[in-house]
Specification:
The chain is α+β, with helices and mostly antiparallel strands and 72 residues long. Helices cover 38% and strands 32% of the residues. The protein has a four-stranded antiparallel beta sheet with strand order 2-3-1-4. The radius of gyration is 11 Å and the shape is globular.
């Protein structure tokens, strides 16, 4: 399943670090985080998508604590 989410990220470097962190999560096929469009795209296993997104949000918070990811 591939979904897009709005996310607030402060710089392109942080976006790249978030993208790398999300790609390391088990079950993630691909991920992109764009500073310019403030969007995150995640392609992950359908069965565990919600669980994977919770881990992705935690990974983003580790990179940039004030980052906001809107899952709805």
């Amino acid at each position: 399943m591939k979904k897009r989410f709005k996310c607030e990220v402060d710089c392109a470097n942080c976006a790249a670090k978030m993208e790398d962190a999300i790609k390391k999560i088990d079950g993630v096929n691909d991920a992109t985080v764009s500073f310019m469009t403030q969007k995150m795209t995640v392609d992950a296993d359908d069965d565990r998508f919600d669980e994977i997104m919770q881990k992705a949000v935690k990974a983003c918070k580790r990179v940039e604590p004030d980052c906001e990811v809107y899952l709805k």
